[in-house]
Amino acid sequence: MKRMLVALRSYVQGPGIMPEIGEHVALLGDNAVVVGGNTALKNTRDAISKSLAEHKIKYVFELFSGETTLQEIERLENFASTQKANLIIGVGGGKVIDTVKVVADDLNIPVALVPTVVASDAPCSALSIIYKEDGTIKQFRTLREHPALVFVDTQIIARAPVRFLVAGMGDALSTRFEADACFSSGAKNFIGTYTTSAALAIARLCYDSLINYGYLAKMAVENKTAVPALEKVVEAVILHSGLGFENVGVAAAHAIQDGFVTLEDTSGFLHGEKVAFCTLVQLVLENRGVDLLNEVYGFCHSVGLPITLAEIGVSSSDRDKLLQVARVAMESPLKMMENLPFPVTAHDIYDAILFADALGNLFHSRQAINEHASVNPRLETGNQL
Ligand SMILES: [Zn+2]
Prior knowledge:
Elements: E1 10-14, H1 21-25, E2 31-36, H2 38-54, E3 58-63, H3 70-82, E4 87-92, H4 94-107, E5 111-115, E6 127-131, E7 137-142, E8 149-153, H5 154-158, H6 162-185, H7 197-222, H8 228-248, H9 252-261, H10 271-285, H11 290-303, H12 319-330, H13 346-373
Parallel strand pairs: 1-8, 2-3, 2-4, 4-5, 5-8
Antiparallel strand pairs: 6-7
The structure holds zinc ion.
């Protein structure tokens, strides 16, 4: 039984560290193409330019089109080749990060990633999702090399819209439960080997950081403050969840999320928001007890992650659409549903979706009663399901 753990070369995180980026990038190359969206570059361009120049790194900025498509990848590859770049730096959210990872892999040069929002666990892995022009998933691309550097300035994260951090927590919430499922079923990880105890411990640490610091981190971003609680959660979402999902594997939560992606109704919601609800569905499928359900529903409610179908734009009475979600989950190309340690059918998934939604509605109504209870204590029911 072969076990393996893979990881990026360097992970650097801290408040106000952007002026030091050149020191880390200088180890990777001396001629960089820096790719990012408008907002990301506006917030970082001056500090990056100054630091790269101080370390005698030649650089040119290039605007990202906004989508991870083959067309955009080819355009950036041609641009980087013309510049004779020996390094790509990607600045921004998940899409620019997934794009530059593929560009660097095709050109066989190192990639440094500078997430300016923490909306998913994409940065640390050697995987990218490429989309078709219409926004649907074209392929999962496995890269030969991991990112050489992931560099996170938490002062920038603290000033980004809070919805991104909350979605990142939703993506990271699934990691421990999917890891536990993969470990119990003996599933292979994304590298095609069995997992290590170290990777499983990292996935569990991810969950503990979310439960202990998630609410505080959300408050930190609402107040634009890079306090230690935010550091804990940024590390959990980018590093722990990234290492965890790649080195242990994913299961029902991501399979069912892929099902919801096929519904137009959910298109306005972020990956991590959908994954959070689908994590609740996985917990129902696994027949988890009421104590754990209270903890996870309570966490989602406290940070504002969806716990009902309505909160990801779907009606619970739309039977056909929910059956379609269940069928797509079963047919997932990565066979993620098979990573559960027991067999399930599409109908099991359908029922679990409805039940997770019913629990979410119950949780919300209990919360509403408790808010009134602060005025009238006789209404107190306890803060639980
Ligand atoms: Zn994810």
